[in-house]
Each structure stands twice: as structure tokens, then as C-alpha cells.
Amino acid sequence: MVLGADPEAIISISKNVITNNTIVGEGNFFGGGIVVQPTIDSEFIMEGNLIAGNSAKNGGGMYLYLVDPACYITNNIISGNHAELSGGGIQIRDPADKSFLSGNTRGALYLSENVAPAKSGFLPVLVNNTITGNSCGEYGGGIHNMVTGTDVLMFNNIIQGNSGLFGNELAIDESDILTHLFNNNIDTESIEGAWEGDNNINEDPGFYQDSYHLTITSACKDAGTDDVEVDGVTYDAPERDIDGEERPFGGDFDIGADEWYPYTAVVESPTVEEAQLLRVFPNPVAGQATLEFEVQQPGSVELIVRDIGGREVFAVTPGHFEKGLYQVRLETGSLKGGIYFCTLKTDNGTSTRKMVKVD
Ligand SMILES: [Ca+2]
Ligand SMILES: [Ca+2]
Predict the structure, then answer these.
(1) pTM of the predicted model, to two decimals?
(2) How many CB atoms lie within 10 A of CB 240?
(3) Nearest alpha carbon to residue 294 among 315, 317, 270, 318
(4) What are the boundaries of each domain within the chain?
(5) Higher pLDDT residue, 39 or 191?
(6) CA–CA separation, 219 vs 205, rounded Å?
């Protein structure tokens, strides 16, 4: 898509699902999932999108061409995209690079910006994205950064499990600009090109079975940062995660698109017609209990666990839940042995289950 807007406008692309698109042919094709090319220098925000399973010659997941480098890309999941050449997940590019015209090609997220420095003084920022399982045949399995006109900042991102010939996770072409990397989960040994930064980790992300929600033992929990300062400008991490949940939860910001909460949406639409409103398992329980419940109509949900004396020992505060099946994981290790009552309140009614804790 080509976006035209008032220079004062903010262009926003959010909460789209862009999957399984392919561009094929003999030409030099960019952006299997999405091509974004603003025509004038508006600020650009891209958040909460799922871009998966797309392919192209370059920029398998996404090709982004920015006139003004001020862009904020956050809470996106970019997974399983493929570029025949470079930028399996994302490619960031500068139109001054004539190779763009001569068929020299690049890979999955393809970000491009103009040679002119940002009027706003802001850098392109990638923060709290989950970029996994992308691949390409040349530069940058996860991200290929070809920008020459400005520094680029990446923090709190998971960039793991991508593969490319040069730079499995990240390839950086230009050594005259700086790619700033802070608090990412990335194997920095595998980066092709020059970068600077600190507090990056290289750990198994510890995903839940949906491959982007974090589990309770994930190394990404509380390993992010609330902001990063570059050249006197402070860049903030997003206030909410891909689920719309507030950041931070617990001690600090998490790395990736998900902020870990004790509950997780596990499927979007339940298929079990006669699903019980609330299930508790295992039961009896000694360690971690799972409380599973179905929300049949979008609305308010409250989950409370009380001991036999009626004292509240655990609660998920009332909040808006979309239709779906959810699981709450409850650590019962600190609870005394005995009988507990788990109560789910939804707009449709109340469901209570007995849970037996054994020491
Ligand atoms: Ca946290
Ligand atoms: Ca979350």
C-alpha cells in the first residue's frame, strides 16, 4: 500500500493479520506480506500486527520504505517468513542505495528510509517485537538493516531462531551509522556487521505453545527496559503489549511482544460446544495448577481462589476478555494443604470448582 497523508499526520497500521502471501516471478520483488511506502514525511506507527508465513525475493514478511525515519514499530509478531535473497523477516533500506534499482536483492522485514536525516530528530525504533523463525538465502534471516542515513534503535525485541547465510538474526550493511541494540534476546555472536549496545541476552525465549506468549519460567520476563536514551533523546517502551495488557507487569518490562501475565489466551475460538465454564487441573495439585475457562461472550471476567475460610488467596482482577478459551497458571507451592474454591464470574454467571492442595 502507498500511504499519502498530511505531513502533520501520524500513519498507523495496527492489529492486522497478514499471513501466507507470496510474491513470485522473475523480477526483484519486495515485501511478501506487506509493502508500506508513505509518500510524504509523516510519522509512522506499526503495532500489534501478525505477519507470518509470507515470502518474496526480498523482505519476506515486510518491506517498509520511510521518507521520514521517525517510525515506531512495536508489539508485532513477525514469524516464519522467507526471503529468497535477503531480509527474511524485515529489511530496512535506503533508496540512495542504487542496488535497489539494479536487482541486487535483500530479505524478511525490509525497512527502508530516505537518505535525508529525520527532521524530527527521532530514529527508527523497533521495540518489543517478536521476530522468530524467518529465513533467507543471503543477508539477515530476521532483519536486514540497509539504512545509511540515520542510526537505528532496537530494544526489548526477541530476535531468535532465524536463519540467513550472512547474519542469522541480523545483518547490518553500513558501518558509518550505528545500530543500537539494548535488552534484546538475540545471539549477538551471529550478527553480521557493526553494532553497539548493552544488556542483550541470548536465551531460549520460553514461549507458550502459541509461540509468542511467554511462560512463567521465560528468561524474557523482566529482562527488558522501560526506555533507552540515544544522543539525548529518550525512547520509551510501549505502555501495553500485544494483548492490550499494561506494561510492565511484575518487576520490569518483558522482552518481546507479550508482557507475561498469570493468564494467557490459548485459543481464539473454543470448539468444544459443551465446554465447562471452569476447569482445574491437576486436581489434587501439589505445584502448578491450571485454571482453564471459556469466555462465551466478550465481557468482564473475574477469577478468585479462596481458602476454606473464605479468605482470598489469588485473584485475576476484573477485566475485559474477548471470546475464547483462557488458562491461568497458579503456583500453589506456598499454599497450605487443604480445600480451596475457585470461582469464575462472567457476565453469563458464576462457576465454582473445588481444588484440593496436597503438601
Ligand atoms: Ca514483566
Ligand atoms: Ca500478555
Answers:
(1) 0.69
(2) 15
(3) 270
(4) 2-236, 265-357
(5) 191
(6) 6
Rounded Cα–Cα distance for residues 15 and 256 (Å): 16
Distance CA 158, CA 163 (A): 14
**pLDDT value, residue 7:** 57
Residue 81: predicted pLDDT? 92
pLDDT in tens, 106-125: 222 333 333 233 334 578 89
| Region 76-89 average pLDDT | 90
**Residues contacting residue 127 through CB under 8 Å, at least 6 positions apart:** 72, 73, 74, 153, 154, 155, 156, 157, 235, 237, 238
CA of 10 to the centre of ligand 2 (A): 26
In angstroms, rounded to a whole number, what is the distance separating the alpha carbons of residues 75 and 36? 17
> Of the bound ligands, which one is closest to the alpha carbon of residue 248?
1
Which amino acid would we find at residue 328? V
pLDDT tens digits, one per residue of 185-215: 999 999 999 999 999 999 999 998 778 989 8
User: How far is 296 from 327, CA to CA, in rounded Å?
Assistant: 14
Q: What's the pLDDT score for residue 38?
A: 60
Establish whether the linkage from the previous residue to 248 is cis, with ω within 30° of 0: yes
For residue 352, give the amino acid letter.
T
Multiple choice CATH, 265-357, 2.60.120.260, 3.30.1490.480, 2.60.40.2550, 3.80.10.10 = 2.60.40.2550
Q: How far apart are CA 173 and CA 176, in angstroms?
A: 9
- Ligand number nearest CA of 208 is 2
Residue in the block written with cell 533467507: 136
- CA distance linking residue 326 with residue 277, whole number of Å: 10
Which residues have their alpha-adjacent CB atom under 5 A from ion ligand 2?
241, 243, 245, 258-259
Distance 297 CA to ligand 1 centre (A): 29
Ligand nearest to the CA of 218: 1
